[in-house]
UniProtKB/TrEMBL annotation:
UniProt KW keywords: Membrane, Transmembrane, Transmembrane helix
Sequence intervals crossing the membrane: 38-60
Coiled coil found in the keyword field: no
SUPFAM superfamilies: VPA0735-like
KW Transmembrane helix (keyword) present: yes
InterPro entries: DUF1214, DUF1214_C_sf, UCP009471
Species the sequence originates in: Roseibium salinum
Chain ranges of the DUF1214 domain: 106-207
Protein name according to UniProt: DUF1214 domain-containing protein
Length: 229
């Protein structure tokens, strides 16, 4: 027997051995079929498009612009109507055919909840009390959950600051209800249902508080629920 036969055999490994089935699956090279790869890419693109469209639709459907400044139950959108408005806000206003107040005209604040954080219900009675930021004129209007005007028993849907009854310190109290009330009465929809939704829109005209920084710390009226049927 020769010396070569007695020496132990040394295994040699080349690049071709990397593709052996004995390698762990996690590190085993994979060469996918071109058609399967294209199909996977197409599915990913379709799912990503659907996700993007769905998320944009949900944001627009909520009808709540972004970059809101929150003051108790009130939300202001100082960038609305400016070049700094985000695309979602522009789409919301365009879809609802709403022309926001320009920064030089005034500011609109919207309340969708009362001061306790409960969604506003057009079948309930609310008390809106306190003071507003300084403004030459302001109005408060009732609209439904989609921002549309409603039909009321009195035929009006708003109050104007110049016609309000006020306390000695300048504060006021407004009763928002379907039926008529003494004092400052803000009519709600006569035939409203809870599912119709409710918003209070406070518009300040010729007011110095038209930016987010100016709104910091200002006093806003509280919204208290007095009762529901």
């Amino acid at each position: 027997m020769t010396d070569a036969a007695l020496r132990p055999h040394k295994a040699t490994h080349g690049e071709a051995d990397w593709y052996q089935d004995e390698l762990p699956r996690a590190i085993r090279p994979y060469r996918g079929h071109p058609v399967r790869t294209l199909f996977t890419i197409a599915v990913i693109l379709v799912l990503a498009s659907l996700l993007g469209i769905s998320s944009a639709y949900l944001v627009i459907e909520r009808e709540q612009p972004l970059d809101a400044v929150t003051l108790g139950p009130w939300h202001a959108y100082p960038k609305a109507g400016t070049a700094e408005a985000d695309p979602y806000s522009v789409a919301i206003y365009t879809r609802g055919a709403v022309i926001p107040l320009a920064s030089g005209e005034g500011l609109a604040l919207v309340a969708r909840e009362d001061s306790a954080g409960r969604q506003l219900d057009p079948t309930c009675v609310y008390r809106i009390a306190g003071q507003t930021p300084s403004a030459r004129l302001w109005t408060i209007t009732t609209v439904n959950g989609h921002g549309n005007l409603v039909k009321t028993l009195s035929g009006r849907v708003q109050l104007v600051s110049q016609n309000l009854l006020r306390n000695a310190d300048g504060s006021f109290e407004i009763t928002a209800a379907k039926a008529a009330h003494s004092g400052n009465w803000l009519p709600l929809a006569a035939d409203a249902r809870a599912g119709d939704g409710l918003r209070f829109v406070l518009r300040l005209y010729d007011a110095p508080v038209t930016t987010g920084a100016a709104l910091d710390g200002v006093n806003m009226p509280v919204i208290d629920r007095l009762g529901c049927p």
